Amino acid sequence: MARFIFITGGVVSSLGKGLMAASLAALLQARGYRVRIRKFDPYLNVDPGTMSPYQHGEVYVTDDGAETDLDLGHYERFTGVAARQSDNVTSGRIYQQIITKERRGDYLGATVQVVPHVTDAIKAFARAETDDLDFVLCEIGGTVGDIESLPFIEAIRQLRNEEGRENTLSVHVTLVPYIAAAGELKTKPTQHSVRELASLGVQPDILLCRCEKPLPEGERAKIAQFCNVRKEAVIPALDADSIYSVPVQYHGEGLDSEVLRAFGIHDAPDPDLSAWYDIMDRKQHPEGEVTIGVVGKYVSLPDAYKSLNEALVHGGMANRVKVNIRWLDAEMFERGDDLANELEPMHGILVPGGFGERGSEGKIESVRFARERNVPFFGICLGMQMACIEGARNTSGIEQASSTEFGPTSEPVVGLITEWMSAEGLQQRGANTDMGGTMRLGAYEAKLSPNSHVAAIYGANEISERHRHRYEVNGAYRDSLEKGGLVFSGMSPDGMLPEIVERPDHPWFIGVQFHPELKSKPFDPHPLFRGFIEAAVKQSRLV
Ligand code: GLN
User: Fold this and answer.
1) Interior CA angle at 70 toward 67 and 72, to 5°?
2) Are residues 337 and 233 in the same domain?
3) What does the alpha-carbon distance between residue 328 and residue 209 come to, in Å, rounded to a whole number?
4) 71 appears as a binding residue in the annotation
5) Is 526 one of the annotated active-site residues of the chain?
6) 58 vs 36: CA distance, rounded Å
7) In ligand 1, which atom is closest to the CA atom of 468?
8) Which tens digit of pLDDT belongs to each residue from 464-498?
């Protein structure tokens, strides 16, 4: 039977609960346990799919087509366990489910209430598909004390009773701020936060205290005494040099040992952390560096490109180089800023996914620069679409080439898809359907041309990658684009949808309709990112 670990946050948001959950799961996994991590988001959106990246950061897409919180990306990168729709639930999704049942009359006349109906649904989400697991880690979004998270805390309280204290654990992540004027770390906010949580019926077993200075023993003892936990269960969590050092750091502070002790497990094997030491070594001791220019729209908020950022780092680890990322706002190239000046120092140019017309001409010009100057180019989703429009205009003579996403056009090189095949059969959408969850989402297979660059990079002729887009490159333009040197080297299995384009006459020019960054892991860097950074290393020797 699976044991449950509930992770809540207190004092302030952005304490890195997601990273903490991912690190603890990785440590338990390193001891041979089977783990899964779930995220409970208290907001009312059904999923983050319709939220702006500025509000919420990246939308992480799973194989089964769920649009989820970016913390699921951390979970998957740290544990290698593929996330699923059932690993992320929001208040909105729970209410939607309950209201649908209520309208159907499933409650047989009963009054539908937060307790028990909402809390029962939360508990059902926590328990679903857990038979083959040793530990289920449930991270509750938000901060204890928020109105929105109350039903989740109540559900934890009930679960702890129902599953038994010996099978459940509460980990509370707090902040111990340093007050420079006093020269001291302050424990009071932690005491208040634990009191708040305890007043809701959940006494934490372990406190993970984020602090920017080492926590003196005296303060540790004070927190333990006031918060009713063992002193050893007050785990200091100092800021780390890299997220990839966090599991080893927490292990050093005794986090996983305390968790096992709290469950009464005394015979756990020692963790095998060799993969993590190898990752840290690659990160801390690079043998060179490259600079990659990412030409996008949401560049002022790097969380909007979280997985992309990490996949580039993984590509660097694979090649033992440090990757410097220059986030470039595509719009600045439209304002007349000197594109060549900005892009010349780059060893690789990447145009990432995105939505809407804003900045598209700057992206297209960046593709042109990369093509003409033989700089390694990687286009992802919208980036591939921009590469096709650039090729259509500048190497195939279709001057009016554009995407219907940007308005009516006489040359729809990129167009809206209304029908496509998925594993579940034919999917159909109208131009006016809801925005939420209506894209081509999740894992789809692609067939690669045997002698293509991508087939060599993957070492395979068939691949599966995750998608999230509404528009597609229009197959009707294939011949014209290929005459201009842009080869369609990956197609959907039915041959209808272009999945990959490349330029054989260029050192490294690849556009993909999917999001390879979502599947890259530090201990298993994605082949396209490994290859792109390798090409950037070669480029760095030329310039
Ligand atoms: N906006 C484009 C589409 O919907 C690309 C989406 C993306 O880059 N994720 O097709």
Assistant:
1) 85
2) no
3) 36
4) yes
5) no
6) 21
7) 9
8) 999 999 999 999 999 999 999 999 999 999 999 99
